[in-house]
Amino acid sequence: MVGEYNSPTLFFRVKLNKTYIHIIISFLILSNTYIFAQGGNTINNTGGKITNKGKIVVKSGQVKNLNDTIGGRVEFTDNGSGDTKIPNIVFNQLQLKGGNRKWTDTTNSINKPLVTNDSILIDKTARFELVNAPVYAHFHIDNQTKTWGTKEFRVNGDVEQIITGTGEFSILNIDNIKGVSIKDGGQRINSHLILTNGSLNNDPLNNITMSDSTLIIRNISGSVLNPPVFDNRVSVKYIGNGNIVSGYEIPLDSTKLQNLYAENDTLFISRNVTVNDSLHVTNVVSTFNPANNDTTIILTHASRENPVYKQLYSEVIGNFRRTNLKFDREKNLFHNRYTYILFGRKDSSKNVAEVTYNILPFTMPGSTRTWDNALVRRFMHISTKNDSGNAVTDNINMGMGFAWKKASNVDIDENRDLDINNVLLKHEKFTWNDIPKTNTPNTDGDWVYSYEQGINELGYFAIGTPGNYLPLVLNIKVFLEGAYRSNGKMTNDLANKRLLPLDTLPNIYPYNLLKSRNVNIAKLSDTTLEKFVDYVVVEIKKDLNSTAATYQLAMLTKDGLLIDPNSLGLVKVNDSIDSNEYYVAIRHRNHLTIVSADKVPLYPRVNSYDFDFTKSANILGGTASLKRIGNDSFGNLLFGMIGGEVTANDQINLTSANIDFRPDIISILNHFSMKPGYDFNDTNLDGIVTT
To answer: What is the model's pLDDT at position 471?
Structure first.
């Protein structure tokens, strides 16, 4: 031991033998420079405490059971041929010198890092390996040598930090929201650069150099200020729960991005990017950013291998180019698992060398993107070039897999209640032209997908109903006598009391006429839900006595309008119907059915059918089939469906002025209840059956 010491307890003992120095102390205060453990000995501080206000130099040998935290400065300077274990404790200042192998040890605690609060200084003569414990540097880092190992060097202080020197890291993790700056040269990364939090502030003179085949991992809160230097290929991975706009972590040189892993929520590509090996998409990669409305950015996949979509709904949005194409009927996968192109032989496919496919979900297709009720909301455009770089527009003879989403969630639904069995692929040439349909669509979750072949023209494509077919849109107004109150309004007591079925309708008339009794209004806000009175069923058939009919569920608003419970728009008839004349009827669970007075010519291409069932002249039987309930704002009589029909046979057995007294007495007594409920005997729709 060289130097001076102070001990308030004046009690310590230094015992020497040829294998170790054993310090037995109450506590030891070091204020100058002390050199321990020369000649291969060991500092064993078991049971003691060292308070260092100066500098401790370990020239050789090992240390054992040091304090969890040591102040001052500690230097490990062994220049021999052996190893020195650097304990995973908290140092104030740590300096590493000398050519022997120095490596992070976990003797103190397996799950703890080695921490430096003030600085870590790694001399150019040092050999430092992060083996068992990572290093967490809370302030200054000066690295002049090559460090290596499988553990990370994390820069995670709570003030802006600086990395100086011209050394090398195996794994460097930038985890400081105040930022980390590179100064006095630059550092090389030989395995991973992790951008966890804050900005890595680099510039051309003080930069990060990525060795060949390294990996950059960027979290949603991390970034790099300027382009690093890339020796050759680099891979980039995006992680975290949130969206990321790509930055300079992706090389500007299109030949240098090896693999791209998009594991965050949505990755927005901010400029043209080429992936040369593999593309892995967990959620969404988009070349279209709504924030700037830029539709020109292209993601190019230059590998022959198809992109990997890790989940069912993984997808690329926007311009996606493939340049290393497969032929001989092998799939060239594009935006998702079900979107692909097949070519025959290359020479029979006009020597196509690249395909650029643009898909925008929830966007109307075509050159004008005009709203059209007959089309799925999915924009699709395909262009190709041959080996000479010239555009190929026709006679390409390719097969095309295509897909879209049909979902109960209106935020992601593209199908818009179209009958999936009636849709086909279309191509735009002055107008939409049907491509002959040879396959029936399949479903996988919310995906609907299909395939067509023999496609010879490129450009704009769409998915929609055949030429002259459109889903029939019903614009109907009707009142229920029992629910009507005054001033053209009905009660919404069932909605206010949360008595309306939210997911499955009961197996009662008229809901048992439907193909499916499933509804999905549980997601609606209270404000939206409270607009509704009850469900009704719309019936469409050619003859009054015919048993063949089309049934469509609708929700009735307080104003008497019929609304689609899924889209919250006007009711659309999901089943395709022929152009013909039909009767239209309205059925309710406890009101008499009403039918249009005459057949109505329904031509689906006309878009919609408007009908007011509150006017007696429009109803079969006139006033005899209705109940007068009041007047509109112009003084005209208003009529409603007659309440009290609780036997599902369109008959009422008792007449009374009080609506809840009028149904069949036996039925009422059998179902008597003063508790709120969704009961077919509740003919005034207040949620309670009274007698």
So the answer is: 59
